[in-house]
Design goal:
48% helix; Cyclin A, domain 1; binds cobalt (II) ion; alpha/beta; globular; 2 domains; 8% strand; single chain; TIM Barrel; 21 helices
Length: 463
């Protein structure tokens, strides 16, 4: 008889965000989501993760959808369920650090438009990069779920994560999330970490993993036994492989145990059958590669999360060097060690990955990307472990290293953004889109408004 600590286990479904970000290049459209919302809203999830991460960028860049409008539509269609988003702390949903006033405005608008729970994380677990976002969520009345970016290295001990969790609770976290984006957490380590976090902190603990290496559902079972409060699952049509373990499978596995989720498999099946159709269409459109559906234990060897792997392959393809993939995968842990063991998650996964590609193609540390230099200069915050000083010197020479909270060096930006984009923007939300994605958003907004004008003109001609 398995022994389970805790009461009912709660489930967050990632079907509207991480599931299709991990399996279908973030290409699920709001039209694919809305028909299922009534059923989803009736299931009784702890929350539905539906916004943030890469969805914001993908909406404008590929789907020609306004991300803010998507959020408002989902809010209207899901009146009973808490809506959750993923936010990269001071990075928001972009790829650099923004000034505090941008972070504050972005968080305020996210909550105003319908978000209830904000999962805030920082790629380096530098809590100074999470402070402003956490404070802003609290100020707007949202729930703060502060996340630890899980990784393994000589500096990432259990005590390290427990200490970070304590700091995050002090900063105001309502929930602590262990974010195992690359499925590196193994079942017995999950048991031990969750058990200790539960003993240390009197707030809910939420676990996020993927099934990339094929161990995800075992990790959840171990965590359920240790007393984890909430787990992230995905409805079966977009589950497993580089996505989350399947919701229905976890619900079935825990039925009748002390951690019964109380969710109705029939209702889940009804929701799943809608997404089965969506997945089938995406497969015929070539948006789902069979690679992401299979478990790949290599992730445990190289610590390369699924999204990063496909980036590496496409970078090598551009350089006509696809045959060097194995060399690059072997180079990633070496670069990571030289850079002080950052966890590999956006944006550090891209930075370390690109540097590994450069090292393999041009010779080790013959050249550095702009972002790699910035990371070594401390622009992203404090690197967790010791940096290889020879490598740092080669990259940035005698440049001064930033030791303070990086955002303290960024002047307020909202005024500048308003001056630059105010002419084309209709709302503060539009301004924020431009601030985060200056290469994509202004053009998107211009086109959106033009389309509107054409429609009006056409109507006029017909009167
Ligand atoms: Co994830």
């Amino acid at each position: 008889m398995l022994e389970f600590r805790g009461k009912q286990l709660y489930i967050t479904d990632t079907i509207l965000r991480d599931a299709h970000q991990s399996q279908a290049a973030t290409r699920m459209r709001v039209e694919d989501m809305l028909p299922a919302c009534e059923i989803l809203d009736d299931i009784g999830y702890w929350s539905l993760e539906c916004w943030g991460g890469a969805t914001f960028d993908a909406c404008m860049r590929f789907l020609k959808e306004d991300p803010w409008e998507r959020l408002r539509q989902l809010r209207r269609a899901l009146p009973k369920t808490k809506l959750q988003m993923l936010l990269r702390g001071q990075n928001l949903l972009g790829y650099r650090h923004y000034a505090d006033d941008v972070v504050e405005t972005f968080v305020q608008k996210s909550i105003e438009n319908g978000i209830d729970i904000v999962r805030v994380f920082d790629a380096l677990n530098d809590v100074r990069n999470m402070e402003t976002a956490i404070r802003a969520v609290k100020k707007s009345g949202g729930t703060v779920e502060a996340a630890l970016s899980y990784t393994t290295s000589s500096v990432h001990s259990e005590e390290y994560f427990i200490q970070k969790a304590r700091e995050l609770k002090t900063l105001g976290a309502d929930v602590i999330c262990v974010k195992d984006m690359a499925n590196l957490l193994l079942p017995s380590d999950a048991y031990s970490l969750i058990y200790k976090l539960k003993a240390e902190l009197d707030i809910p603990i939420h676990l996020h993993t993927h099934n990339t290496a094929g161990t995800g559902s075992m990790v959840y079972l171990a965590a359920a036994m240790a007393g984890v409060d909430i787990i992230d699952c995905a409805l079966s049509p977009f589950a497993n492989g580089s996505s989350q373990p399947g919701t229905e499978s976890m619900v079935a596995a825990l039925r009748g145990t002390g951690r019964d989720t109380g969710l109705d498999l029939k209702k889940l099946n009804e929701a799943a059958s809608h997404f089965k159709t969506v997945a089938a269409r995406m497969e015929t459109e070539g948006l789902i590669s069979t690679k992401v559906l299979r478990a790949d234990p290599n992730t445990l060897l190289y610590q390369v999360p699924g999204g990063m792997l496909s980036n590496l392959i496409s970078q090598l393809r551009q350089a006509n060097a696809e045959n060097r993939l194995e060399d690059v995968l072997r180079e990633v842990p070496a670069v990571r060690a030289d850079f002080g063991y950052p966890p590999l998650v956006t944006p550090t996964s891209q930075i370390i990955g690109s540097q590994a590609v450069l090292n393999v193609l041009m010779g080790r540390y013959r050249s550095f990307t702009k972002e790699a230099k910035a990371l070594l200069r401390g622009e992203y915050g404090q690197l967790p472990g010791e940096v290889n000083e020879d490598v740092r010197r080669r990259a940035i020479g005698g440049d001064e290293i930033i030791r303070c909270r990086p955002a303290d060096l960024i002047e307020p930006e909202m005024g500048k953004i308003r001056d630059e984009y105010g002419g084309i923007c209709r709302s503060t939300e539009d301004l924020l889109s431009c601030a985060l994605f200056p290469q994509v958003a202004p053009e998107f907004i211009r086109k959106r408004e033009n389309i509107h004008e054409i429609v009006v003109e056409w109507d006029g001609n017909n009167i």
